[in-house]
Amino acid sequence: MNIEFATELDYEYIVDRDHHILENLIMTKIKEKEIYIIRNQQNMNIGWMRYGYFWDNTPFMNMIWLDEQYRGNGLGGKVVLFWENHMKQKGSKLVMTSTLANEEAQHFYRTLGYKDAGCLLLENEPLEIILIKPI
What we know:
Pfam families: Acetyltransf_1
Strand order of the largest sheet: 1-2-3-4-5-7-6
InterPro entries: Acyl_CoA_acyltransferase, GNAT_dom, N-acetyltransferase_domain
Number of strands: 7
CATH class: Alpha Beta
Keywords: Transferase
Distance between the termini: 23 Å
GO molecular function: acyltransferase activity, transferring groups other than amino-acyl groups
Protein name: N-acetyltransferase
CATH superfamily: Gcn5-related N-acetyltransferase (GNAT)
CATH topology: Aminopeptidase
């Protein structure tokens, strides 16, 4: 597996698959190096990870995605640790993410050392769990 910053060449791949971001923001996130592309040994795209900043100063992982056949074998954890190390190098001492209470991802993050820090309840949505991790 190879993790690298997304480039303009990855734009179509991301637009086709990431439906949780406004399309007109994707190129900005690519230019700001806030999207990683995950590639397999054959250099084929198999996923991405996108982040931003909570309160404009705390790294917040917005989305991590691996194609179905690449899940469950530790690759997601490697991507998260790669991101955490990058954020630590940039001077951050804390990272954040969130997940819906009805998703299995909460258990994934907890095994990586993330702790529950609160929640958000939006109308007609499951509870959103906020998770933090000192780095």
